[in-house]
Amino acid sequence: MNKKHAIFAIVPAFDEAEAIGQVVSGLLSLKDESGQPLVARVVVADNGSTDGTGAIALSAGAIVVREPRRGYGYACMAAISAAEGADILLFVDGDNSIVLNETPALLAALDSKTDLVIGARAHTQAGAMTLPQRFGNGLACFITRRVWGVPISDLGPFRAIRKTAFEQLDMKDMTYGWTIEMQIKAFQQGQRVTEVPVSLRCRLGRSKISGTVKGVIGAGIGILSMIAKLWWRERTQGTRHQPRVRRV
Q1: What's the CA gap between 114 and 102, in Å, rounded?
Q2: Domain holding 238: CATH number?
Q3: 176 in a domain, yes or no?
Q4: 68, 100, 147, 242: most buried, per Cβ within 10 A?
């Protein structure tokens, strides 16, 4: 990644006290090829935590914003609102499941004029994803491939996007449908999307989604309903562009 690009890490976090310090310090310690910091700022959105997540992130060197409305999208948007001066938005989960040393490979794909890079979870540690997660992710990708004819293989949360491209997406979903909305809208608008294989390890602490029946059901409904909404909008408005997707 060219040094002239300001890369801001966006980290939504809800009760991630066990992991957030490692995530923030890990991001800030990343270096580019010249030995300079790879990430300019880490912005953590404390999504109503009660375990001191925000304070730990702040002490580790992050910018911390508070977003009491629960939801992945709400947290991401709150963090983005504090990312003034960013050229690239790097989305990272706050649970330490992402292998941060793979960040340079993810960002390198943006050098080829790609707009959005998805870290496709190709190397997954045993137990890192539950069976319902794998099934739901696979189903959503299968439907998206059939409807839009794109070689999508994952809804991975580890992703990078040019801020100008993100602003064109006009994101609406503030809960479970955030990741799939970003990908499908990028396809619909003809943005250049690349998948890069990444690793996933077991998270620290208990998942608020896959760790509960309510979370699993809510995520499934949110994702599938978002696919349906975007398909219907495209069908009625006729705004489809030719998707441009590639895999590394």
Answers
A1: 18
A2: 3.90.550.10
A3: yes
A4: 100
Structural domain count of the chain: 1
Is residue 33, in this structure, part of any structural domain at all?
A: yes
The pLDDT tens digits for 54-84 are 999 999 999 999 999 999 999 999 999 999 9
Domain span including residue 218: 7-247
What DSSP line would sit under 43-54, residue for residue?
Answer: EEEE-S-SSSHH
Q: What residues contact 48, with CB distance under 8 A and at least 6 apart?
A: 14, 67, 68, 69, 70
For 180-213, the pLDDT digits (tens) are: 999 999 999 999 999 999 999 999 987 765 555 5
138: left (phi over 0), alpha (psi -120 to 50) or beta: alpha
Strands laid side by side in the 63-66 sheet: 63-66, 41-46, 7-13, 88-91, 159-162, 116-124, 192-200, 244-247
Specify the pLDDT at position 236.
85
Structural domain contains residue 1? no
